[in-house]
Amino acid sequence: MIKILVSDSLSEEGLKILREIKEFQVDVKTELKPEQLRDIIKDYDALLVRSATKVTKDIIDAALRLKVIGRAGVGLDNVDLDAATQKGVIVMNTPGGNTISTAEHAFSMILSLSRSIPQACASTKKGEWKRSKFMGVELYAKVLGIIGFGRIGKEVAKRALSFGMRVLAYDPFLSRDVAESLGIEVVELKELFQQADYITVHTPMTEETKHMISEKQFAAMKKGVRVINCARGGIIDEMALINAVKEGKVAGAALDVFEKEPITPENELLKLDNVIVTPHLGASTEEAQVNVAIEVAEIVRDALLGKGIRNAANYPCLEAEVCKMLDPYIKLAERMGAFSGQLVEGRFQEIDISYSGEISTYNLSPLTMALSKGLLFPILKETVNFVNAVSLAKERGIKIKEAKSSKEGEFVNLIQLEIKTDKETRVISGTLSGNKQPRIVKIDEYYIEFTPLGDMAYIENWDKPGLIGSLGTFLGKEGINIAAMTIGRDKPDGKAISVLNVDSPISVAIGQKIKKLENILTVKSIKI
After folding, report:
1. What are phi and psi of 252, to 5 degrees?
2. Is the Cα dihedral 288, 289, 290, 296 positive or negative?
3. Three-class SS state of 412
């Protein structure tokens, strides 16, 4: 008997799918305390959760039979993914279940902002009849700027186009050809801020997107712009938004998410008449709750019955023996993708992957999946996984090509990645060290060997005496310890590259200071 524990509330439609399988025993036990879950998890083969249950390392370590964790929702911040991976537990989520629900909520916010619907409703219910106070604006012929053009952004765009809006989109992974086929214009952020009458964000919350709309961005916007956030709290700097609303730069804002949730009564956003707020309702529709329940039940059912893995966050291949052999190469491929995605400038157009050596005799689709996931993850976060990464890249018009060669070159086994964007072409090569640890060994024409893991700084510089010393001295004064440093150059006194593994992040401010040092050309902070 395969035992499944459901520890958070799940719609009956999802539970029915699992209960119909005679080999399954389904136990629903909600509101368990962590110690209670830890005590009983040893008896279960699968665990289904939403956001309330925190699946910590202690709980995973206590699991003796656990094969699958299914998360009914997008985020995986309540599941210790590393611990699950180490234990060999598949973790799956449901990134598409609330797409329509969130898109519709975002567009409802746009309409509410345009016609002051919540304010007019409250006024009328108080017995007032102030028609002139609630003069609205039409959406027709207005410009909507969408930041983040994934599933939800695309659905919002469809609705905007039906209202006769002009739609601009910013997404680092969206090709112009794909956008134009949908009737969308791809622009850079600066242009979006300058042209948009409405701006809606649909990106994950990352270090790069935190406060991506702040004082500087509000200053670049049109006077009278309207701003919507149904994605993640913190993408918009709330204090900067408050100031922009008070100054009249922003005509109105609609927020479903906040930097601190639940929002407290003293939050100044609640005191602004032209700010509409809702309590994180993006996925709160009956249909969305049913959709994620059905989706998580189906993917867990299929995984337990050996019918395939879908939406896996940590499991790129299926055959145990092959996985064992390829596992270090999968890690290498994922880290190469993550490094490259943060290194390369421009909008991705084509990814050429070349595998050479003895690994070429295997089915290398898991490596291509891992490399694609690594490439997209810094931007898309939990919405991308091993299984959907390649298709998400193709949706955005990124061509992925794969080639094999059994001939050994400079290295016994080598993964070479060539990335073509609308701005440049870069080539990154990687292999395994003698103890099977991932190493990047060449960037473009520069031979260099370093571990792609943790906080790093990528620096292009002139190969001049004293540079290493001045760099080390500067970072020391900033309290940043260098764990390792490698240098590649084509010739003495020529151009060189340096990669530093450091014990703490290189902030934007520190990176700008490094760039001012003598003989430094470019600096990039990279985190894997």
Report:
1. -175, 155
2. positive
3. coil
Active site residue ranges: 232, 261, 280
> How far apart are alpha carbons 174 and 192 in whole angstroms?
15
Distance CA 86, CA 84 (A): 5
Owner of token pair 């830890």? 38
Q: Which domains does the chain have, with CATH numbers?
A: 1-96+285-315 (3.40.50.720), 99-277 (3.40.50.720), 405-527 (3.30.70.260)
Q: Which amino acid is at 497?
A: I
Residue 3 burial class via C-beta count within 10 angstroms: exposed 0-12, middle 13-18, buried 19 and up: middle
Contacts of 432 (CB under 8 A, 6+ apart): 328, 329, 332, 413, 438, 439
Residue 473 Cα distances to 216, 317, 456, 479, 511, angstroms: 32, 45, 17, 10, 14
Per-residue pLDDT of the chain (528 residues; tens, 9 = 90+): 999 999 999 999 999 999 999 999 999 999 999 999 999 999 999 999 998 999 999 999 999 999 999 999 887 889 998 888 778 789 999 988 889 999 999 999 999 999 999 999 999 999 999 999 999 999 999 999 999 998 899 999 999 999 999 999 999 888 888 888 999 999 999 999 999 999 999 998 888 899 999 999 999 999 999 999 999 999 999 999 999 999 999 999 999 999 999 999 999 999 999 999 999 999 899 999 999 999 999 999 999 998 878 888 887 655 556 667 788 999 999 999 999 999 999 989 999 999 998 888 888 888 998 999 999 988 888 778 787 788 888 888 899 999 988 776 678 899 999 999 999 999 999 999 989 999 999 999 999 999 999 999 999 999 999 989 999 999 999 999 999 999 999 888 899 999 999 999 999 899 999 999 999 999 999 999
DSSP codes, 3-27: EEEE-S---HHHHHHHHT-TTEEEE
CB environment 184-216: b (16+ within 10 A), e (fewer): bbbbeeeebbebbbbbbbbbbbbeebebbbbee
Contacts with 241 (C-beta within 8 Å, 6 or more apart), sequence order:
213, 218, 227, 250, 253, 269
